[in-house]
Amino acid sequence: MRAIATISDDGPAVRQGDSNALEQLVNDTTAEVRCSGAVCGNIHWASASVQRAGSFTPGEIVGTPGNAGGSIGADSEPGKGTVFEVQLPTVDGEPHVAAAPPVRSPGDHAGTETILVVEDEPGVRSLVDRMLSRLGYRVLSAPDAQEAFAILHSDEPIDLVLCDVVMPDLAGPEIVSRIQARSPRTRALFMSGHTTHALVKDGTLQEGHAFIQKPFLPSALARKVREVLNG
Q1: Average pLDDT of 103-110?
Q2: What is the 3-state secondary structure (H, E, C) of 200-227?
Q3: What is the pTM of this model?
């Protein structure tokens, strides 16, 4: 017994004589390709070496049913449209589902330390502040170097500075260097929309610094912050 999925339209179908009308569909040696209809011979099943289109190559699209013991077919009639039908074998008994890995909650990476966020983009700064606050951290934030230094000079104990690499008034690494000169126990984590490879290559960031690339998920930030704080 087979499960059947059908995709169709009510368009003009494949025009007679247009051998490239459906070039995005390709033949795969493991797939059973069926075709019927008055102009079915005009459907062009190109080779599986066609360049990748989106997430899957055409060869993968056509070959997958065949690899699973199924088939794909096409039917095209002028004035009626085109139908593509995928048939897949059913499975006897209960399907095997692999056990999902345990999901770690954000609380696994929570903390109570004080973090100074130095970021010039208001939206990003606000978002990062919320992410860290929800994990239990005490968050201080600054939009530029001068405000960051003002917070530092107020003798606020800072456990970690999370600083954007590219800042408008002073480069992030220089901001962090001055903060750590006054507060050596303060750890540092850099963030940027650029890759760490590009930043190291142009000399903006020294290799070996803790780094997280934007945009990042709250869970990724939580893990990285905890990793840096734990040393």
Answers
A1: 62
A2: HHCCCCCCCCCEEECCCCHHHHHHHHHH
A3: 0.54
Select from 3.40.50.2300, 2.70.180.20, 3.40.50.300, 1.10.10.200 the CATH code of 107-230: 3.40.50.2300
CATH 3.40.50.2300 residue window(s) in the chain: 107-230
Lowest mean pLDDT among 55-64, 73-82, 172-181: 55-64
The span from the CA of 211 to the CA of 25, in Å, is 43
How far apart are alpha carbons 228 and 187 in whole angstroms? 7
Residue 67: Cβ within 10 Å count: 11
Residue carrying the six token digits 């260097």: 177
Residue 195: count of CB within 10 angstroms of its CB: 11
State the pLDDT at residue 27. 34
Residue 7: pLDDT over 70: no
Specify the residue for token string 């056509």.
62
Tokens of 192: 């940027």
